[in-house]
Design a protein that fits this description.
The protein is α+β, with helices and mostly antiparallel strands and 389 residues long. The chain contains twelve helices and eleven strands.
Length: 389
């Protein structure tokens, strides 16, 4: 469980307005009470500590429907990408990795079928050109089979010519880069160097089997449909597959993290506070974080749905100053420098350097994408205004 030293006695102790925090909680509760979601959990952090968390509704946990509590864990889907990104940032900081390196020089098995010149940076930005590269679920937890798949993968389009979201393929490559340059399995590296030093003992990339009984099963609250924008392998069947304990144990680097809203919000706190935790543990250097959270995609790298610049930094999204931050998952009140990554079911995870606010929002309910978008905008907007002026 979360160390109590990371929990503020009162929201104002960390500069969070209690009334605004309650308004955020009320908005999250409304979606559950209306029947739109089975459960939801939301948390706000600032100054390195948790200002508050609230959980609403019920979920199937350990095979039976029961009330969701602050101890309930959720799959955070693509919000996992930021956690994996932090591990890559550390390798860059250490000089163990360079953005301009060709992936094939690190992973020779990858250097086939036109992929020879793809760089590490292109993979991090989702402009590598292999968004639909297949990897069968039976092979997710088998490194040798993953490498075999890399060698078969082909390009869908010329690298850097466009942006197209790589739901899982890019992060399988990043996981192997972490292994080769970090000297150990990506899950072990993340635990040893990122979530462990952050003391986030329940931010899991690879769920221990004994924790499975606490995880909320995913369910659709509206008829399942393919998401807009052609997200490849993010299908309803794949989403419901996260109810399988064996899949949760894999720790899919592109979308299989399991945690609570509290630990998700706290993950961003060191990234907002010069790379240090509340109690002075160094995770990353400030200049590394600044470097990693600068927009690197170009004007022609655009969102397929909204036709706006995608604003990608190194495996995270940046809010931006063009009036489209709400279309990127940041609501309408964050600063242009806010960064983070949402999840397929409307999970929210970002931090704002201007205010020090970070938010974690988890749900096990999948609704239609328009309702999900409105919810993300509302929750993010309310979260962004929680700082005491």
């Amino acid at each position: 469980m979360l160390d109590r030293k990371f929990v503020a006695a009162h929201p104002e102790d960390v500069g969070v307005d209690s009334e605004k925090l309650e308004a955020l909680f009320a908005r999250a509760e409304r979606d559950v009470n209306s029947g739109g979601l089975p459960s939801a959990q939301v948390a706000i952090a600032r100054r390195g500590r948790l200002a508050g968390i609230r959980t609403f509704g019920s979920a199937v946990q350990d095979g039976r429907d029961q009330p969701a509590t602050d101890a309930t864990l959720y799959c955070i889907f693509s919000s996992t990408k930021a956690v994996v990104a932090a591990a890559v940032w550390l390798l860059l900081e250490r000089g163990d990795l360079r953005l301009e390196e060709k992936v094939s020089s690190i992973i020779p098995e990858f250097g086939t079928n036109g992929k020879e010149n793809i760089t590490v940076e292109q993979v991090l930005l989702h402009i590598g050109g292999f968004p639909y590269a297949p990897l069968h679920p039976d092979n997710w937890n088998d490194r040798d089979k993953r490498l075999e798949a890399f060698s078969r993968w082909r390009l869908n389009w010329e690298p850097s010519s466009r942006f197209e979201y790589h739901p899982t393929s890019a992060h399988w490559v990043l996981a192997e880069i972490i292994h080769r340059r970090g000297g150990t399995d990506y899950r072990e590296f993340i635990r040893a160097h990122i979530t462990g030093p952050m003391q986030l003992d329940e931010l899991f990339v690879g769920l221990p089997p004994e924790q499975d009984k606490r995880v909320a099963d995913v369910r659709y609250t509206t008829p399942p449909v393919e998401p807009p924008g052609g997200w490849g392998d993010v299908t309803p069947d794949a989403i419901l597959g996260f109810n399988n304990p064996k899949l949760r144990q894999v720790g899919i680097p592109g979308g299989g993290g399991i945690t609570s809203a509290a630990e998700l919000a706290l993950f961003y706190q060191p990234l907002l506070n010069g790379g240090e935790t509340f109690d002075g543990r160094r995770i990353l250097r400030p200049e590394t974080i600044d470097f990693a959270t600068q927009v690197r995609t170009q004007a022609h790298h655009r969102d397929a749905i909204w036709d706006i610049p995608i604003n990608r930094a190194l495996s995270v999204i940046v809010s931006g100053d063009d009036g489209n931050s709400y279309l990127r998952g940041f609501g309408k009140a964050t600063s242009p420098r806010a960064f983070g990554h949402g999840g397929a079911g409307g999970q929210i995870a970002w931090g704002d350097p201007a205010t020090g606010i970070s938010v974690g929002y988890c749900t096990n309910g999948f609704a239609d994408w328009m309702a999900t978008g409105r919810r993300i905008t509302a929750i993010s907007s309310l979260a962004a205004t929680c700082a005491v002026a």
